[in-house]
Amino acid sequence: MAEKLKFAALGGLNEIGKNMYVYEYGDEMIVVDCGIGFPDDDMYGIDSVIPDITYLTKNRDRLKAIILTHGHEDHIGAMPFVMDELTTVPVYCTALTAALVNIKLTERGNAKKVKVNVVKAGETVKIGSNFKVEFIHVNHSIPDSVALAIRTPVGTVIHTGDYKIDTTPIDGGMIDLARFGELGKRGVLALVSDSTNVENPGYSLSESVVAANFENQFKDCSQRIIVTTFASNVHRLQQVINCAKKYGRKVAVTGRSMENVLRVSTELGYMDVPQGVLVDINQIKGLPKEKTVIITTGSQGETMSALHKMAFGEHRHVEITAGDKIIISASAIPGNENSISRVIDELFRKGASVVYERGYQLHASGHACREELKLMLALIKPKFFIPVHGEYRHMKLHAELAKTMGVAPKNVVITDLGKVVEMSGRSIKLTGTVPSGKIFVDGTGVGDVGSVVLRDRKHLAQDGMVVAVVSLSSEDGSLVSGPDIITRGFVYVKENEEIINDLKLLVSEVVWDYADRRTRDWSAMKSTIKGRISDYLYKKTRRSPMVLPVIMDI
Q: Which residues form the catalytic set?
């Protein structure tokens, strides 16, 4: 029986971010992208979310390569953590993506162990005995972005990565539509395509339009200008620097991730920074405000970002003052709207003018809208179609779009994380599952915070905690000292002395009861104390704080 090509997503479906896709034929596997996801509001203390790679670690001998389509966090952010486990697996990506990955690997301490191979758009790499991967230039909001033509014994799969069709990109390199058309004429087994902007009609805005609109913001402006955008948006950084040069302003950059991107982009020639335009952020106070521009991170309202610190008066070098012009050149990632609103409100309170509405057209999405998605389908004419990179509604709408473009309904598959899609030359179907899920990154810890810990954190955040401490005699189990009642995040003790005294009496009654029974079953006593306190507090306050009994045997 002929082998079949298998496809499974470990991230990037029913979510924005955490992209990771597995292609498998025979005894060989390749992985496309390795990104992080943003934590939900109820993931207290979690810095980021990465895919569960259990399936990859169990099959590391079969895994032949990790291939990266571009340098955004949702496609490379998990690399330093994943490569702790998959050190020997070679990595293939373009130059800018490689530079950004190496920064992450160096910070994690595993850069010397990982082999990162740099390729160019237009090149084809043979991987193992079953895969040939061609890198195809596409437009996106970061240079060196590529789609992949993955040739297998079953047929060719086009994996688009993130893309748009920009006929006037500021870097001069339009998406290679001709190559997609050539591949379509030869016959494409499957198209695995970005679905993010399928809800938006027409075409995405060109970066050249954004450049012209930035000029309008700089022209005749006598204020200090602060621009925030995604750290990896190299084109946007270049636009701001070009405007600053034209209007005689100095530029300072703040935010570690943005400083890294600026450095590597300049070194690799993806940015042209005129001499004398850049100044250190420490020097910005000594310059006239009308002659300065600050480029900063924090477009998503992140608590630790530079813009958030400026807004709330915590930044070491920049203080927002009345008259400052703040330009937010980014769209909100779903789930970040409230955080962004809080920062904007605080900036207004400081007296700044904030430019953030879509009407100003100061941000262009890097993802294809409906007409661009239709054009890609028309060029490639795939036999099978799998929408990826989006929430369920995005994939559903993209699937319906593919059907209107001539893909047979039976050949369109909407899959989910961990589900295996099996393709032959004639058919496509869902066949099984592989391990998948979310691994939480908290500080330097990876995976040590699970669902139980998150549940406890959520419990603490919603209802607080009550600790009951008693000291018992090791001889007869009688009460030596206490009970002491400690609360955190539950009630203000000085205003609720009646409740605290009732809890002390309740705990004492339990201790005396166990002393009369002459039992030393501290575990049973803790359970009883916890139950009695929980019942009392719920009846009294209709709240259920976390209750922690502490028994000291002295």
A: 194, 367
